[in-house]
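Section 5.1 Outputs to date
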Amino acid sequence: MTATEILFWFLSILALFSALMVLISKNPVHSVLWLIVVFFAISGHYILLNAQFLTIVNLIVYAGAIMVLFLFVIMLMNLNSNTEPQRNSLIKLAGVIGGCLLLTVMVSAVRSAGEVSNNRALMNEGDIGLIQNLGKILFTQYVVPFELSSVLFLSAMVGAVVIGKKE
């Protein structure tokens, strides 16, 4: 086994264990923290796939901003066991059956998936996920939509500041 394969299996086991801990944890704050571990493991998989842009976006957007938002919402809601509704055993059984059916569909979809064709036009010597290639494409072929979206984001930020400003 090579070092890449060992790292892949370590990250896969870490992601699966952390995902199970998200579901098993009784404390909602612990569930959010385990979900952050899942996002880090997935980012490790992106690095193994040579997709640095997706790695950075996953870490900044999901593990950073979205999880902090979830954590603040959970902490502000002040959840405890008295406010949680009691779970019925019938609902638990329906959840287990639904999860097993979803797992069956996923396994059959993976088994029936054919071989992915090797498209040599997209594979530039293994550089497909590099930020440099993304930048070249954004600033050559897609420069007009890229600049229009930047103007849209700028106007949205100015609008948020104007709306949020106290008079």
